[in-house]
Give the backbone structure.
Amino acid sequence: MSQTAAEPLKFAYWVPNVSGGLVISSIEQRTSWDIDYNRKLAQIAEASGFDYALSQIRFTAGYGADSQHESVSFSHALLAATEKLRVIAAVLPGPWHPALLAKQIATISQLTNGRVDVNVVSGWFRGEFAAIGEPWLDHDERYRRSEEFIRAIRGIWTEESFNLRGDFYRFNDYAVKPKPIGQPQVFQGGSSRAARDMAARVSDWYFTNGNTPEGLRAQVDDIRTKEKTFGKSWRTKVGINSFGIVRETEQEAKAVLNEIIEKAIPQAVQGFHHEVQNAGNASPEREGNWAKSTLEDLVQYNDGFRSNLIGTPEQVAERIIGLKRAGADLILLGFLHFQEEVEYFGKHVLPLVRELEANEAQASIAAE
């Protein structure tokens, strides 16, 4: 039995710490970006069986997201409101220096019994960097900087006296005390050659945009091959983005999807499409995130509809297992109405997933 098949899938949800919800549409979204809503949501997610929450990082308004809470401090607030949930704080190299982030995360880890992780985002929104006066590096240079950033924070957390002579960062006998409790997990995103190579060298987790099982399998196989090439000593785990629309009937679920798309905000979707297509096509092989996304895909920011978790609880659970067979270790979910739908998902979908996992494990043992 493969390691991926043997381990239960992890589940995460997008933290709505940015206004506008998770779709660029005028459809009703009973979701709020304020702290009271998000504290309650974190508690519901924890009670419903979710393992992680992923906060978002945005510095400027755009594409339906007019207001944004900063991710690291917001993540700390959610950790303070929960007991088991792990929270992943998204950060951008450039605006963050690794010394600052390493110190922030070490402190939060001490305050929350080691439940904080980080998602290193290499950057897709050029206008955001221009607005805050940060240099906008070429695509592969952004990933080179992110890799050095990850090596720096991990070194600061694990070495008593950290030294680095890099192309982007320099450290001289730098020590952080206290260290984090345990080792914070390092997540990253991206679909380009540079992103997958970085994952295969240094990251604990690789997030990819929504995709079919076949598309996901191709990415996972590529990372596994590169891990061997680079001599990585641990397995990169893989998370896939998805947007959940789970209803009693398939017709109801598809009707919601159709309404989301019919009520898409054209100017905002087209603006987002222009920005991310530039980012996706900026990689040398033109295969970065969003390089092949359609306008309909981009009504949900990270191609979440493409994972097809849209239907009845039974259909969605079966499709989740299909993504697991393709190599997924974690399903990252967005919803229209977060509090009520996270609870519904935990009550009606997660038990089915666990039952299917148990059946597959028994069948695998019987076949050995």
Q: What stands out?
A: The mean pLDDT is 92. The longest strand covers residues 237-243. The chain has one domain: 3-367. The CA atoms of residues 216 and 304 lie 13 Å apart.
